[in-house]
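Sample entry copied in:
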Amino acid sequence: MKVKKLKITLKEKHLVDISFEIASSLALVGQSGSGKSLTLKALLGMLPRDMQLKLESQSDFELVAGKSVALIPQNPFTALSPLTKIKKQFFVNKSRVKELFEEVGLSYTLAGRFPSELSGGQLQRVVIAIALSSQPKLLLLDEPTTALDPDTRVLIIDLLKKLQIEEGFRMLFVTHDIASAKSLCEDICVIKDGLVVERGKMSEVISSPKDSYTQTLIEANFANRNFRE
């Protein structure tokens, strides 16, 4: 799918003015305030009323939140109702919930528990299962590994890669964490102050960034790693 123009303004002030293509998996990378979250909200139809949106896209499906578009939020601990058992937070029948639990590698016995009784990794798998219940064409990832420990982060990234192969959805991974994005996404789009400063294949941009802002982000993410191996 192609987003030919995504422009967000507030009282004639430009906030975001970008374009991008999601062939399979795209990382939208930038620091806080770069426009990442506003882009997500625009695609979900959740922008504040005082903001104006101009969106031109070309796709084989209609962008409809909750149907063709699903979101995996940043923090699994706050994504679910704490007073409701897990199985009651799905809007599909029991047999489908069982299928989804199997897909994300969870025992269905956990469905009868409350969110507080699950670990962070288990909760994130539940959130992923809920997102997949609508059989989305586009999965939006809002820093889905930030609240997880390093080992669980790797497991969730591997799970998402497996599910994409099995389900065939496209992914837009919104993050400032290039390390995680590198593990999951084929392409990268770097934004600063609501504008694209660099885009391309992940491996090429990581190894040879052309923009100084991209270079700064890479150095900050991989300060203690030999990421070009």
About this structure: Residues 2-221 form a domain with the Rossmann fold fold (CATH 3.40.50.300).
